[in-house]
């Protein structure tokens, strides 16, 4: 699009900023021709779900803060306020590895795609990797990959064991090389703590989303470090972001007690998941493999199960005795794992 | 970084965002719904398992109810 250069003085730039913002709002509004819940009215409702609690994983001695599935669909890594990370066999509920970190509040953990490596970090501001092997204590092989200037809130391996993407309380995201510990790219654009990141589910995987305490979700190009899109609308911190399985939309969960769906190509919010009776914040969101179900973990100890298309609540998962802090659907979509401030993790299927 | 430089970056970012090609919400939600209808037969959490044996997290019990 041709944009006139409006002079290189500050006032000119301010004026152009206002014009552009106005135009953005106008364009987005113009395309808002129908509501998702209206289009989905003719759809059949879902049959009764048969999801039941199947496993309880006990072992942490404090709040569970994060969990991630291994690509083998069987192992789960979890991290806790007690400073421990535990690798579980979710089939048997056995603990296969337990590592004590030199910090409490391990806010983030992630399995590498190979399943042989986990990354974690938190109040220590660092992202540390532990190779998992039966012969050696993982603690002897630990390696610090990167350091932020504030706590690390989230991490993931984009596509291979060689790189880690992190989000931090220093309001940036960063891409690190695992081997050398080199900072490959940093992502500046949030004006407050980054709480959650997710990778776009495409083969190339060069796009990710971040959400945080500035109530904004940002879409990034991982190669250039450039912000591609910004989504606003929440009235409080965004605690969780997740790509819709097609990669064309993102879901967000917020302290404002709502979840929202933003479409990347319509460049705007297309749905809000809310009820008058739901007044507690959302800590985690994830989709079933088809995208039809949106799971959301809340501060009121429940998991609400939303029909993504009809924007209505289908059911709730009860079991946890404190806040649900994290939630992940298994890689093949057969199960969901939830972690809570009640010190336990649960697997539902 | 000076105010002017910062403001320039903000405006450049907004120019990029304003230049994005957009589709209507009607088109966007049609694609979202199509993805569900193409993949719901594989969505075990939605439609359940063909048999309980297919559920890797089924209850293991030594006796079965006939």
UniProtKB/TrEMBL annotation, chain A:
SMART domains: WD40. Keywords: Repeat, Transducer, WD repeat. It comes from the Eukaryota. Gene3D superfamilies: YVTN repeat-like/Quinoprotein amine dehydrogenase. Belongs to the WD repeat G protein beta family. PROSITE patterns: WD_REPEATS_1, WD_REPEATS_2, WD_REPEATS_REGION. It comes from Daphnia sinensis. InterPro entries: G-protein_beta_1-5, WD40/YVTN_repeat-like_dom_sf, WD40_G-protein_beta-like, WD40_PAC1, WD40_repeat_CS, WD40_repeat_dom_sf, WD40_rpt. The keyword Membrane does not apply. It holds the Pfam family WD40_Gbeta. The keyword Transit peptide does not apply. This is Guanine nucleotide binding protein. One of its GO terms (biological process) is signal transduction. PANTHER family: GUANINE NUCLEOTIDE-BINDING PROTEIN BETA G PROTEIN BETA. WD repeats lie at residues 57-98, 145-186, 187-230, 231-272, 282-307, 317-349. SUPFAM superfamilies: WD40 repeat-like.
UniProtKB/TrEMBL annotation, chain B:
GO terms for cellular component: heterotrimeric G-protein complex. It is found in: Cell membrane. GO terms for molecular function: G-protein beta-subunit binding. The keyword Repeat does not apply. Keywords: Cell membrane, Lipoprotein, Membrane, Methylation, Prenylation, Transducer. PROSITE patterns: G_PROTEIN_GAMMA. One of its GO terms (biological process) is G protein-coupled receptor signaling pathway. The keyword Transport does not apply. Residues 1-66 form the G protein gamma domain. It is a lipid-anchor. InterPro entries: G-protein_gamma, G-protein_gamma-like_dom, GGL_sf. It holds the Pfam family G-gamma. Belongs to the G protein gamma family. This is Guanine nucleotide binding protein. It comes from Daphnia sinensis. The lineage of its organism: Eukaryota, Metazoa, Ecdysozoa, Arthropoda, Crustacea.
């Amino acid at each position: 699009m041709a944009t006139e250069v409006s002079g290189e003085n500050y006032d000119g730039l301010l004026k152009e900023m206002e014009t552009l913002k106005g135009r953005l709002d106008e364009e987005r509004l113009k395309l808002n021709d129908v509501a998702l819940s209206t289009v989905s009215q003719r759809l059949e409702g879902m049959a009764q779900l048969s999801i039941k609690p199947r496993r309880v994983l006990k072992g942490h001695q404090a709040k569970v803060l994060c969990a991630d599935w291994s690509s083998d669909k069987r192992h789960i890594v979890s991290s806790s306020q007690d400073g421990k990370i535990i690798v579980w066999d979710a089939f048997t509920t056995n603990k296969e590895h337990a590592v004590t970190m030199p910090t409490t509040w391990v806010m983030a953990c992630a399995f590498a795609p190979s399943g042989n490596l986990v990354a974690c970090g938190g109040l220590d501001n660092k992202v540390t990797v532990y190779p998992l092997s039966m012969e050696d204590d993982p603690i002897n092989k630990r390696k610090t990959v990167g350091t932020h200037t504030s706590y690390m809130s989230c991490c993931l391996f984009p596509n291979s064991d060689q790189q880690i993407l992190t989000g931090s309380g220093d309001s940036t995201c960063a891409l690190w090389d695992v081997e050398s510990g080199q900072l490959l790219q940093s992502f500046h654009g949030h004006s407050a703590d980054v709480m959650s990141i997710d990778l776009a589910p495409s083969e190339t995987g060069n796009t990710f989303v971040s959400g945080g305490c500035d109530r904004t979700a940002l879409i990034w190009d991982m190669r250039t470090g450039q912000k591609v899109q910004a989504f606003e609308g929440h009235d409080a911190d965004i605690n969780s972001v997740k790509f819709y399985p097609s990669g064309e939309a993102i879901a967000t969960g917020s302290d404002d007690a709502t979840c929202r769906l933003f479409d990347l190509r319509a460049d705007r919010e297309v749905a809000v998941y809310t009820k008058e009776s739901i007044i507690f914040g959302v800590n985690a969101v994830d989709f079933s493999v088809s995208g039809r179900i949106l799971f959301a973990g809340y501060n009121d100890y429940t998991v609400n199960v939303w029909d993504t298309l009809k924007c209505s609540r289908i059911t709730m998962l009860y079991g946890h005795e404190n806040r649900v802090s994290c939630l992940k659907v298994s890689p093949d979509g057969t199960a969901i794992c939830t972690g809570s401030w009640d010190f336990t993790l649960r697997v539902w299927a | 970084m000076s105010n002017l430089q910062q403001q320039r970056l903000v405006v450049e970012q907004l120019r990029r965002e304003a230049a994005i090609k957009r589709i209507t919400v009607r088109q966007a939600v049609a694609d979202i719904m199509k993805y569900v209808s193409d993949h719901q037969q594989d969505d075990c959490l939605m439609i359940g398992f063909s048999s309980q044996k297919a559920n890797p997290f089924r209850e293991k019990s030594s006796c079965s109810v006939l």
